[in-house]
Amino acid sequence: MADIIKIALVGNPNTGKSTLFNLLTGLNQKIGNFPGITVDKKIGYCKLSSGQQAEIIDLPGTYSLYPKSKDESVVFQVLADKQNVSHPDLIVVIADATNLRRNLLLYTQVADLNLPVILVLNMTDMAQKEGINIDVNKLSERLGVQVVAISARSKTGLDDLKQAIAHTTRIATQEKGPDMNMLAAEAIEEVKAMVGTDNDYYALQLLHQHEHLDHFAHQYDQFETIEKNHHFETSKLQAAETIARYRYLSTVLSGVIEDTGAVKKFVMSDRIDAVLTNRFWGFFIFLFILFFVFNAIFSWAAYPMDLIEESFAWLTTAGHENLPPGILTDLFLDGVVAGLGGIVIFIPQIAILFAFISILEDTGYMSRVTFMMDKIMRKFGLSGRSVVPMIGSIACAVPSIMSARTIESWKDRIITIMVAPLVSCSARLPVYTLLISLIIPDTKVLGFVSLQALTLMGMYVISIVAAIVVAFVMKLIIKAKEKSYFIMELPVYRMPRWGNVLYTMYEKSKTFVLEAGKVIIAISIVLWVLASYGPGDRFQTIEKKYAQIELQKDSVQISTLEKDKSAEKLENSYAGILGHVIEPSIRPLGFDWKIGIALITSFAAREAFVGTMATIYSVDSGDGNEGTIRDKMRVAKDANTGLPLFTFATGFSLMLFYAFAMQCMSTVAVVYRETKSWKWPVIQLIYMTVLAYVASLIAYQLLK
Amino acid sequence: MNLSQLNPGERGTIVAFTDLEMSVKLMEMGCLPGELVEVERFAPLGDPIAIRVAGYQLCLRKSEAAVIIIS
């Protein structure tokens, strides 16, 4: 017996499975009220009362072992494959006590695989409030397994569960479920002989789903032959199995559940729904919530952001005053610190954005948004389920593209993946906020609505409209035979779990700083080098030229002279030369070669924009390193015309470019991984770049 | 008569399904023959619909509700 016991958590969506996982392992992660939020494999460790270690894997929520989407197929893969690294010693099935019969369908399937099982009844406190009494001992006796009543929300019953886990034997004790052999007796017997098992249900499952199990790849043909010989009809048999299981459950549960019906259920949830999904008010409220979120991102984050901005400006100035002058100091202050400042400053906005997303998911509102939006989304080749990946893309396209796995239809899923990166992600937020603060006056409309916040929301609306239009075009181009469907549970409204909200804020900010930070710091350093050195003896020539001029001028003019010198140096550096090379192609968009440098660095990750700007303008301003990036950009002059660079036309054109261009290596990589071909990421890269260029071109030419 | 023909507040009992593939999914989620269903509300644009079945709320498109024969 291994020292560590491996446990798999299995259950329907919305049963509090992830909450239980967090409570057991302490290793908290993102959880939500939305069906199928747990997409990735999540593993945590937990110490049992006996001192034994347990490794717990949180499997995606599913209603049955027959997968309806890509992430659900993981469950059977892990449970059926003994060679799988995550194959458990013990399965903990978690069931919602307020809806036991439906939840136990999955239990009976899992139990028939003949692995040791414990049944956990969650939300028992809620069930009691609703007047549902469950005889736990009787249920345990009838099923032949340990049954533990808990409430993950109020954290009761956890010790009992840990004890039950410690007490389980390694031998399956469960009573046999309904007879599965009779469904397809001959085919099942042949499979049993073929793979060497005596488990009827395992054999039946293999007939249904062998194509999901790689280790049977060499026997696929044999399975197909057996299916053909015995006229094995998948859908018909699954239907028959489901009916048999429910019939069995009715017997098991008779005398176990007593629903007094004393309390009228769902009254609260229905009342909330009557308002939030109201025919007239539904969309208004949704728009209002969106606007509230964006307003909060702008106004609440302003104070901590100012503080961070000033701190970094102060740090740079103090550094230049106190550290010995030299290349290392310059690299550290103008490269690393300037780049770091460009990252840290966005923590407040990212934390606030994720706090709201997590609250909306946790309360159950996100499911209602899906419900309300399905009809509109379907017109454009998407489904209501695409709303979550799309709204999630406001945070980051990478996890959202992964979450598109919950979309059953291939065509809906591909289109969602293709347009999700168009939705403005948090990495564009720094670009927008910086540019908006430069080109939009800080005034109020109607006395209380900030014009800057309105512009920001406008950018998000533009990006969503673009995504929808592109989706519509793709709907007409991409062909698919299968039909899409939309059958989804609407969970009851609940209070958000504040601890989880706080954790999400912390987790996402940390991920942003560490993941984006690595790239940005690296780019900042490379950029500083590129901007501080030039080919051949160009720099020496400039030094000599200015040294000669200096001799003839008085001290007053020397400071302006310094500026001219650093500007000329930058223009002749490697970065400057690179910028000049691409300048002819971006000139019609209103960009000069300095913005060109930012565009080049942003093709790795768009977050690099602000850091690049900071580095370029720090180098540019020579010895005077005081002031914030914003101040420096405000006074920036077009390198060709000498007029202020960041006019409304240029700023807006630049924002549009960042809104539409595919400037994110991680997204390209994840699209490749999810679609398993280079075809889709390449199409995506091309169409987004063309869209960005054309949109910026039109905007600049009209506005200038 | 099928489920998509009901208005909010109206009820029926599931009798059968006209689409085998869809019936598997629906039954797994608790929509079994003999089960009582009540249409709770329509989405703001009239589709999908939210129904109460087997003690919880489920939403589905009208075209999907149309495969559920009720009495």
Summarize the structure.
The complex is a heterodimer of chains A (704) and B (71). Chain A is an alpha/beta fold and 704 residues long. Chain A has 30 helices and eleven strands.
DSSP strand tally of chain A: 11
Q: Kindly, what is the distance between the CA atoms of the first and last residues of chain A, rounded to a whole number of angstroms? A: 75 Å
Q: Structural class, from helix and strand content of chain B?
A: alpha+beta
Q: Can you tell me the CATH superfamily of chain B?
A: Ferrous iron transport protein A (FeoA)
Number of helices of chain B: 2
Q: Helical percent range of chain B?
A: 10-25%
Can you walk through the features of this model?
The complex is a heterodimer of chains A (704) and B (71). Chain A has 704 residues and is α/β, with parallel strands linked by helices. Helices cover 61% and strands 7% of the residues of chain A. Chain A contains 30 helices and 11 strands. In chain A, the strands form 3 sheets. A 6-stranded mixed sheet of chain A has the order 2-3-1-4-5-7, sandwiched between helices. A two-stranded antiparallel sheet of chain A has the order 6-8. Chain A has a two-stranded antiparallel ribbon with strand order 9-10. In chain A, helix 25 packs antiparallel against helix 26 (608-620). The longest helix of chain A has 42 residues, at 281-322. The model of chain A is unreliable at 30-39 (pLDDT under 50). By secondary structure, chain B is of the alpha+beta class. Chain B is built from 2 helices and 5 strands. Chain B has a 5-stranded antiparallel sheet with strand order 4-3-2-1-5. The model of chain B has no long low-confidence stretch (mean pLDDT 91). Chain B is 18% helix and 38% strand. Chain B starts with 10 loop residues before the first strand and ends with a strand. Strand 11 (487-489) of chain A pairs antiparallel with strand 4 (56-60) of chain B, so a sheet runs across the interface.
